[in-house]
Amino acid sequence: MPPAHPRHDLAPLLSSPVRLSIVAALAPAQKAEFAFIRDLVEITDSALSKQATTLEEAGLLLVTKGQVGRRPRTWLSLTAEGRSVYERHLQALRNIATLSAWEGDGEGAGG
Amino acid sequence: MAEFAERAAYAAQLTIATDTERAARRQGRWQARYFIGFAVLQLAFVPTVLLWHGPMAVAVATSVNSAAVMALVTYANRRPMTRRGFTRVHTTMIASWAVLYLAALQLGLHIFDGSVLFAAAGALACALPPALAAVHEIRISR
Fold it and tell me: d(Cα B104, Cα A8) in Å, to the nearest integer?
């Protein structure tokens, strides 16, 4: 039986570029402020809020609210499952890229 | 044709993920600045404690150091992003610094009392853990 194509490891939820960007921005972070992710991903408050809810409902993201001084703050962080899904998705993308390059080489060598 | 478009879409996804991750990691550079601030503080604080004796010295050194540590903590708390693993690095740095600081105090006040050379060595030793932590943060935030 041939090995499964790496695309089977892709997470359908992360096929949206905005959701993928949000998760990628949170990947190196323990936690990040809502506004920080909004500015980094270059989306509106409402768009981030909507996508964060989708990711939270899927168990990939955690939303916590608190205060810094007197100012209310919202922090986003990846759950352990979110991190694992993102890493698997990223690895699948890398594998697809390697496979594509290898197939490209093969085609080139074959003339 | 469709297969080519699919591959291009996957490649674009990979680029989005790696670029965004790199941009987010760069925002974690404040942690290096925090550790550098802590190291510089040691270079001033440790010689002051070891060479300037008396109740006035203790009062001034303690209040200046407390204010500086509070400023660093406030700075850290106001950052919008904390890098994953920062807590572990910070805890290790504080624990190492505490051991070296207590050793510098014991030796500096009881054995090398008034020695400028020892005060300088003690300051460098106490600045070492935050300096190493800063180097670590700079390396991984690239």
Answer: 58
